[in-house]
Design a protein that fits this description.
Length: 120
């Protein structure tokens, strides 16, 4: 299944008249690895967002679209909790443990609450 990141990259290549090999070379990986990332079989390397933005000289709008596509395509999230309080660490761990058992309504409510916090 092609991820949001994969769709973004394919459209970017088409718009620029490039093939997968061209993008793979600019990312310093094999076309097979790029394909695996685009199809969600491999995680997106952390530095790829910046590399693609620089290599393709993306506008601010396109850069945001890319970063959004990367976020939507992630299958794993790592959080460095070393500088956070014990309460924050406990919250993050509890959320991770319970995430799979939350129903759709609970997830919507949490997302709504977190989105409201960012707007303030």
């Amino acid at each position: 299944m092609v991820t949001a990141f994969g769709k973004f990259c394919r459209k970017l290549r088409i718009d620029r008249g490039q093939i997968m090999l061209d993008m793979a070379e600019s990312l310093q990986v094999s076309p097979a690895f790029l394909s695996a990332v685009e199809n969600g079989k491999k995680n997106i390397p952390a530095q790829w967002g910046d590399r693609i933005i620089k290599a393709y000289k993306l506008s601010e709008k396109k850069s945001m679209e890319l970063l959004d596509a990367i976020d939507k395509s992630k299958t794993e999230i790592r959080i460095n909790l070393s500088k956070h309080s014990e309460q924050d660490r406990n919250l993050a761990i509890a959320f991770a443990r319970e995430f799979g058992s939350l129903n759709s309504e609970q997830k919507k409510e949490i997302l709504k609450m977190l989105s409201a916090e960012r707007k303030d």
